[in-house]
C-alpha cells in the first residue's frame, strides 16, 4: 500500500450517533464485548501469521493457505458462521503465456498476404485465445470523449468487424492538448480502447504507432518471454482471472501491415496530420480488405482464498445489506536468492498480520455480544493485496452480497506500529459520516484520531470506494520496516492492535444497527 494524507478535525454528527447507539446495543454492552478483543489474542495471531514457517504468505503459496485455515478456525471459534456453507471464497488468478498459433493475413483487393509474428505483429497481454475474420475499419485513435466533443466512432459501424487504431491520443506531443493531463490518462489507455471497441461490437483490434509522433513503427505488443532471448521465461505477470469470452484478439502491427493497407507510411502520416490539425476524426471502412487474425494464449490458473465469516443480522429486510470488516492477510513472500544465513523472509508482521489479528479480535468481540445487530457483519481476510488488491477486487467482482446494498466497508491495514495512541482514519469526503461514527466510539479506545480525506488509496477499501461503497480505512502509518525482512512480530504493539479491534468492532456494530445507507 502507498497512501498520501491531508489532516482535519471532527463534526456535528454526534446527536445522530446518540440515537443510533441506543437502537443497536448500549455503550456498556459494546464496551463489555470489546474486552474480548485482547492483546494476548492479538499477539498469538501475529506470532503465527508472521512466523518464518509461513514464508511471508505470498499469493499463492502453501504459507498463505495455512494462514487461511488458521483464520477460518479463529472465525469459527469467535462464533461467526460460514457464508453459503463455506469459510472460503476462491480467488482465481491467471498467468498468460503466448501460444504458438498466432497468425495475421490480409486480403487486399483479392490478394492475400501473410504476416510474421514478432516482425510484423505482436499480441498484447489482454488478447483473446481466438481466431476472427472480417472486414476492417480504421477508427483513428479509437477514442470516444463526449466531454471533449471528440468521437472516432461517430458515423461508423464496427459491429462484427476488426478495428484498426492508433496507440495513443491526438496531438500526443503537444503538452497543451486537451487530451493531456494525468487525470485523463486512463481514458486513452489501451485497456480503455479495447473496452470501447468491444462495447461497439468489434471482434478484433489492431493497433499501430502514430508515424508522425513515433520514430519506430516496430510492433511491441507485450514483452512475451517466448519471443525474446533475454526476457526470463517466468517473467509473465499474474493477473486476476478474466473470462476469455470477454476478450477479443488485440495485436500491435508494424510497418509492413501499414504499407499494405495505406500504400505507404506517408499516406498514414497525412491522415494523422488531418485528425490532429482540427481534432476532427477521419474514420472509414476499408473497401476490398478482409482480415484473418488468430492470437493464441496458454493460461495457467492459480488459486488463493479470501477467508469469510459472518455474524447474521436480525432485520429480514437487511440480510443482503451487510457491514464489511476487512484486512488483507497476504504479504510478499521471501527472497529466492538470499545469501546463506541471511534473513530472507518478509514476515509482514505489521503489513498486515496486525490488521488480520485486529480483524479476528473484532470478530471475537462481535461474537461476545450475545445479541445480533439489524444487519449482518461480514468479516473478510483478503488474499493477494500485495499483488494489486486481488482479493478485494475479486470480491467486488463476485460479491457475496450485492455491493449497492453494502452499508460500509471498514478496512484494517498496518495497525500495530508507531505511536501507541495515534491512529489514522481515512475516508473520502463523501464518506465522512463513517469517520464520525468511529470517532464517537473512540471513548473506549482513547486514540488520538488523525483523519484524512485525500484519495485514500493503496489498500483494499479502494476496491469498494471505486464502486461507491462507503469505506473507512484504519491505519497507523508507514515506518522504516515497511516491506522489509525486519517487519517482525516482536516489533508490534499487541495492546494497540486489541484497542483498534475494539474500536472497529464498535464502529461496525453501530453501523450494523442503522437502517439507512
Ligand atoms: Zn498492506
Gist?
The protein is 27% helix and 22% strand. The chain is built from 13 helices and 19 strands. Strand 2 (103-108) and strand 3 form a beta hairpin.
For this entry, give a set of tags.
Aminopeptidase; Glucose Oxidase, domain 1; nine-stranded mixed beta sheet; disordered N terminus; binds zinc ion; eight-stranded mixed beta sheet; 517 residues; alpha/beta; 13 helices
Which spans have pLDDT < 50 for at least 5 consecutive residues?
1-10, 13-23
Q: Order of strands across the biggest sheet?
A: 10-1-13-15-14-16-19-17-18
- N-to-C span: 28 Å
Given this structure, which CATH class of the largest domain is correct? Alpha Beta
The CATH homologous superfamily of the largest domain is called Zn peptidases
Query: Based on the structure, what is the oligomeric state of the protein chains?
Result: single chain
Structure description:
- The chain has 13 helices and 19 strands.
- With 517 residues, it is α/β, with parallel strands linked by helices.
- It has two domains: 5-92 and 302-512, Zn peptidases (Aminopeptidase); 100-295, Glucose Oxidase, domain 1 (3-Layer(bba) Sandwich).
- The strands form three sheets. It has a nine-stranded mixed sheet, with helices on both faces. An eight-stranded mixed sheet has the order 3-2-12-5-8-9-11-4. A two-stranded antiparallel sheet has the order 6-7.
- Strand 14 (323-328), helix 9 and strand 15 (377-382) form a beta-alpha-beta unit.
- Helix 4 runs parallel beside helix 9.
- The longest helix has 20 residues, at 349-368.
- It is elongated.
- The model is unreliable at 1-10 and 13-23 (pLDDT under 50).
- Bound molecules: zinc ion (ZN).
- The site of zinc ion (ZN) has 8 residues, from helix 9.
Amino acid at each position: 500500500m502507498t497512501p498520501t494524507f491531508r489532516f482535519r478535525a471532527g463534526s456535528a454528527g454526534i446527536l445522530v450517533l446518540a440515537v443510533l447507539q441506543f437502537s443497536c446495543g448500549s455503550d456498556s454492552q459494546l464496551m463489555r464485548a470489546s474486552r474480548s478483543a485482547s492483546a494476548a489474542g492479538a499477539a498469538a495471531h501475529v506470532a503465527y501469521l508472521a512466523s518464518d514457517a509461513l514464508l511471508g504468505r505470498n499469493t499463492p503459496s502453501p504459507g498463505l493457505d495455512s494462514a487461511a485455515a488458521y483464520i477460518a478456525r479463529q472465525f469459527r471459534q469467535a462464533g461467526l458462521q460460514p457464508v453459503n456453507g463455506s469459510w472460503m471464497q476462491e480467488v482465481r488468478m491467471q498467468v498468460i503465456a503466448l501460444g504458438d498459433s498466432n497468425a495475421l493475413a490480409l486480403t487486399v483487393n483479392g490478394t492475400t498476404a501473410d504476416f510474421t509474428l514478432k516482425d510484423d505483429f505482436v499480441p498484447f497481454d489482454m488478447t483473446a485465445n481466438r481466431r476472427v475474420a472480417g472486414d476492417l475499419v480504421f477508427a483513428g485513435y479509437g477514442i470516444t470523449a463526449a466531454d471533449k466533443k471528440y468521437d472516432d466512432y461517430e458515423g461508423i459501424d464496427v459491429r462484427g468487424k476488426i478495428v484498426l487504431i492508433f496507440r495513443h491520443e491526438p496531438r500526443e506531443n503537444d503538452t497543451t492538448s486537451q487530451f493531456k493531463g494525468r487525470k485523463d490518462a486512463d481514458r486513452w489507455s489501451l485497456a480503455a480502447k479495447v473496452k470501447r471497441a468491444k462495447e461497439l461490437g468489434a471482434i478484433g483490434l489492431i493497433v499501430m504507432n502514430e508515424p508522425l509522433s513515433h520514430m519506430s513503427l516496430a510492433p511491441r505488443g507485450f514483452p512475451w518471454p517466448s519471443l525474446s532471448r533475454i526476457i526470463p521465461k517466468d517473467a509473465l505477470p499474474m493477473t486476476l482471472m478474466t473470462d476469455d469470452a470477454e476478450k477479443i484478439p488485440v495485436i500491435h502491427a508494424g510497418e509492413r501491415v501499414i504499407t499494405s493497407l495505406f500504400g505507404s507510411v506517408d499516406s498514414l502520416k497525412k491522415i494523422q496530420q488531418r485528425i490532429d490539425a482540427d481534432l476532427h476524426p477521419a474514420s472509414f471502412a476499408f473497401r476490398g480488405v478482409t482480415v484473418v487474425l488468430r492470437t493464441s494464449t496458454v493460461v495457467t490458473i492459480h488459486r488463493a482464498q479470501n477467508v469469510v465469516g459472518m455474524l447474521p443480522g436480525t432485520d429480514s429486510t437487511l440480510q443482503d445489506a451487510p457491514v464489511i470488516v476487512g484486512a488483507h492477510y497476504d504479504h510478499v513472500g521471501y527472497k529466492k536468492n538470499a545469501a546463506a544465513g541471511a534473513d530472507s523472509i518478509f514476515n509482514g508482521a505489521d503489513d498486515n498480520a496486525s490488521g488480520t489479528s485486529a480483524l479476528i479480535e473484532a470478530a471475537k468481540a462481535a461474537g461476545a455480544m450475545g445479541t445480533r445487530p439489524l444487519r449482518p457483519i461480514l468479516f473478510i481476510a483478503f488474499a493477494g493485496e500485495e499483488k494489486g488488491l486481488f482479493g478485494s477486487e475479486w470480491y467486488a467482482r463476485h460479491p457475496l452480497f450485492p455491493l449497492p446494498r453494502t452499508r460500509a466497508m471498514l478496512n484494517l491495514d498496518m495497525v500495530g506500529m508507531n505511536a501507541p495512541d495515534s491512529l489514522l482514519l481515512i475516508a473520502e469526503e463523501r464518506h465522512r459520516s463513517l469517520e464520525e461514527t468511529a470517532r464517537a466510539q473512540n471513548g473506549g479506545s482513547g486514540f488520538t484520531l488523525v483523519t484524512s480525506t485525500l484519495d485514500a488509496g493503496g489498500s483494499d477499501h479502494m476496491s469498494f470506494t471505486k464502486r461507491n461503497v462507503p469505506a473507512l480505512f484504519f491505519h497507523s502509518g508507514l515506518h522504516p520496516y515497511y516491506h522489509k525482512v525486519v517487519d517482525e512480530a516482536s516489533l508490534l504493539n499487541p495492546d494497540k492492535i486489541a484497542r483498534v479491534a475494539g474500536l472497529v468492532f464498535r464502529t461496525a456494530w453501530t453501523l450494523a444497527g442503522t437502517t439507512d445507507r
